[in-house]
Amino acid sequence: MAPLLFLKDIHIRFGNTVLLDGAELSVGEGERLCLVGRNGSGKSTLLKIAAGMIEADSGEHFAQPGATIRYLPQEPNLTGYATTHDYVEAGLQPGDDPNRAYYLLGHLGLTGQEVPSNLSGGEARRAALARVLAPRPDILLLDEPTNHLDLPAIEWLESELKSMRGALVLISHDRRFLENLSRAVVWLDRGQTRRLDQGFGAFENWRDTVLEQEEIERHKRDRKIANELDWLTHGRSARRKRNQGRLARLNSLRKGRREELKSMGTVKMEALEGGTSGTKVIDAKGIAKSFGDKQVIRDFNLRIHRGDRIGIVGPNGAGKTTLIKLLTGELQPDAGNVKLGTGLEMAKLDQNRAALHPEDNLADALTGGGSDTVFVGGKPRHVVSYMQDFLFTPAQARTPVKVLSGGERARLLLARLFAVPSNFLVLDEPTNDLDLETLDLLEEVVGDYPGTALVVSHDRDFLDRVATMIVMSEGDGRFSVYAGGYSDMVAQRGQGVTKSAAKQPAKSDEKKSAPTRPPRESVAKLSFSDQHALKTLPGQIETQNKQIAALQAELSDPKLYASNAARFTMLSAQLADLAAKRDANEELWLALEMKREALES
Questions:
Q1: What span, in angstroms and rounded, lies between the C-alpha atoms of 408 and 242?
Q2: For the chain, what percent of residues have pLDDT higher than 90?
Q3: Mean pLDDT, to the nearest integer, of 342-367?
């Protein structure tokens, strides 16, 4: 069957940057595609070309005559409409159900009477989502549809998209959303596309396999470069007369390697540990807060210990931000009390990007202005060097914040956050606008963070990977505490956030969330070898961490790979082997420590 939409050999350049270099996209009837790639790889541009909003420099664009295509932009324009209902209704076709506009707006938290000029960015995107869904199009192109949606709206949208008969092409950083909706993946990488005819759940393993094969090919090419250099230096014909054909091939190989190394850059992200806080970080007892007649927080109890990762979830307007302000001491409760532990060094990430001034350039946003030095953990670094850790180029140092993309602003905020030593992270929607690779690294950083983290997020997969406890809004100002991540919370409640729990909610008591210890009689006694391991493993782990840090420091030298690829490969192998041994020692020590604690209890 012929595709409804077909893009072939698409090329587009912005200035000196080649964004798309032969990209392709084919959408058949009823297909469910997700389009993935790093921030700045050209995903949104490819989707706009598919929607007919912009033209490629060259390439073929075909859409079946009469096929209805609707595109959701990241920044919709509602200018010229009196209300949100008028805006959504304008997207309907003759014969469509006019009541569908109110149905969609209602499920997305709007009444239809809102004046567009008064809408926030999130409200405008929800109105735009209702507009593209209203006519039940043949092809629906969605660019980050879950941004600014709360969990009930995300779960409703999943259900709505699953029931639609048209084809879907989806860009999103929300892994769970992609896993639940996609049946095929189009990966946009370095200007070109690859397709996997499986859902997103299979993508990351497939991508890693592709990159591993590329690495093998890169090593083969490095050996070929070495052979060519040897020939140029020692070959008889080289001493008599340079063979221009071989020299041209060598230069081509070098150029290809430089371009690949440049395009395969990764974010270097590390949270700097401050001083050690007390064991008890926050102790909240019976706290309540009202604004006028509205009870926002009602009789809430929570105890947070050092090392906990608390995820806070619930609908927009449920009081999550108020709860964070109460727990961190920014706001005083009307009843009850909050006691903060000793030695807290707090670092906060604001979802509204309020810490960024639009007219500042990128360098000034990191240094505070008037300097080329940023202090990272108290140590000076040149701002351009630190920028490059977060995938900014030296040329962007004087770029105003106001022209940065959403993903670039998110990375800039993370760069500011992780330059400051802390032992208590407060992250309000940290995953907004991050690409999947940067999101992976953020998960690692938060998961390995030696302090305590308080996270508000609508990203279910992120919460499953980092949270040790979930605080869930149950409505009417009541919050409950559940052990584990988001999926654990759903299992305990019996349902997700779109409906009330089928059984009585868990009480908001820190004892409820604490993992239960095994009975003493069921735990075997520690053997002599176990006792010896408990004493010696911490020293081994510390030594291995120092060795790992030394290897990472040498590998971080950007000139090493180009000057000595063999040593780079050897050190990389040593690092992987040492990290595996360190991880195994940590797991053994943790198991023995839990066994010891259970015996002592």
A1: 47
A2: 30
A3: 80
Residue 158 sits in the same domain as residue 298: no
Structure tokens at 233: 């230096």
Evaluate whether 453 touches 442 at the Cβ level (below 8 Å): no
Strand order through the sheet with 58-63: 17-27, 5-14, 58-63
pLDDT-based confidence at residue 109 (cuts at 50, 70, 90): confident
What is the DSSP annotation of 502-519?
SSPPPPS-HHHHSPPPPP
Q: Which of 136, 156, 177 is the last residue of a domain?
A: 136
Residues with Cβ within 8 Å of 4's Cβ and at least 6 positions away in sequence, in order, are: 27, 28, 29, 63, 64, 67, 138, 139, 167
In a domain, 330, yes or no: yes
Residue 206 lies in a domain: no
Backbone angles phi, psi at 410, to 5 degrees: -65, -45
Looking at the chain, the whole-number percentage of residues with pLDDT higher than 70 is 82
How long a stretch of residues is the chain? 601
Q: State the number of CA atoms in the 13 A half-sphere of 291 facing the CB.
A: 9
72 strand-pairing partners: 142
How many domains does the chain fold into? Answer: 5
Q: Does residue 285 carry a pLDDT above 80?
A: yes
- Cα pseudo-dihedral 340, 346, 349, 354, rounded to 10: 90
Beta strands in 361-428 (DSSP E): 373-376, 379-382, 424-428
Mean pLDDT of 148-172: 91
CA distance 22 to 9: 4
Q: Is the pLDDT of residue 422 over 80?
A: yes
Is 256 in a helix, a strand, or coil? helix
Domain extent, residue 238, equals 213-263
- For residues 177-191, give the mean pLDDT: 94
| Helices assigned H by DSSP within 264-382 | 320-327, 362-367
Q: What is the pTM of this model?
A: 0.65
